[in-house]
Amino acid sequence: MQLQHLRYFTALARERHFASAAATCGVSQPTLSAGLVALEQELGKRLVDRDRRFIGLTEQGVAILPWAEQVLGAVRGLSQAAEALSVAPQGEFRLAAIPAALALVGRLGDRLLRDNPGLTLSVHSDTAREIQRGLAANAFDAGVTYLDHEPAANVLSVALHEEQYLFVARKGAGFEVDAAVSWKRAAGSRLCLLHQGMQFRRILDRHFAEHGLSVIPAAIADSYVSLLSLVRSGGFTTIVPASYAQLMAGLEWCRFLPFAEPAPARRVGLVVVGRDPLGPMAGAALLAAQAVARDNAG
């Protein structure tokens, strides 16, 4: 069985598009398709439903996906272990972050690359649950996620930030005189929010419930870029982490308002798998995160 064929399969499962998967693997689409056919023939099972386009994985494809990820992760871990005695880590560093933490990756990534010039950084956005699964399969070197809410198991962590929440409305939408907004008023506005598969949304739903409120947003999305675009249209409001307000400082079209009844802060931080011995990539990530945490404290 060729590892490259497993790479084609996992890339297709992730991208859900033949051309995108081929581009990710750096091969032509016919090469990727031929590799998938060879893998199916070797296993004697059809793994992918397809016509002229990707439809989905078969039951057999879904069943082998975690094993394929673990095999590739183990091979990658073996390569890293072989380089563990080198002067500094080399190659691609894969960092996964929940959408709520994407505004924090700049300082962490900058510190990581300044301290380890042999690395290149690849940032992925994913859910907290997928990050935990990816870390266990060695698909990611580190993650940035919540440390207190639904915490990942068997990890080492460094707290980077305490998350607060801000209400966002377009200027002219009726919030000009407000210094803060209540959860009740926010719930009564035309909200657009992340979908419930996102941990940030589940936390928000809990905060609303603590105030006796239930929210059905007018629109949902899987990124803050989409939410802010809807707000800019003038007809929507949203709720974002305060770190996004810092990232968007100076924009004239929107207002960021704190909540009159602030929710408890949630810690967000870097996590790596707690292996012994610690791999070179994980060690480099922890050192970079600790440096950023010291800078934040100072």
Write a structural description.
GO terms for molecular function: DNA binding; DNA-binding transcription factor activity. Belongs to the LysR transcriptional regulatory family. Keywords: DNA-binding, Transcription, Transcription regulation. There is one protein chain. By secondary structure, the chain is α/β, with parallel strands linked by helices. It has 3 domains: 82 residues, Orthogonal Bundle (Arc Repressor Mutant, subunit A), CATH 1.10.10; 110 residues, 3-Layer(aba) Sandwich (D-Maltodextrin-Binding Protein, domain 2), CATH 3.40.190.10; 94 residues, D-Maltodextrin-Binding Protein, domain 2, CATH 3.40.190.290. 44% of the residues lie in helices and 22% in strands. The protein has 11 helices and 12 strands. The protein has a 5-stranded mixed beta sheet with strand order 4-3-5-12-6, sandwiched between helices. A 3-stranded antiparallel beta sheet has the order 10-7-11. α1 packs across α3. The radius of gyration is 22 Å and the shape is globular.
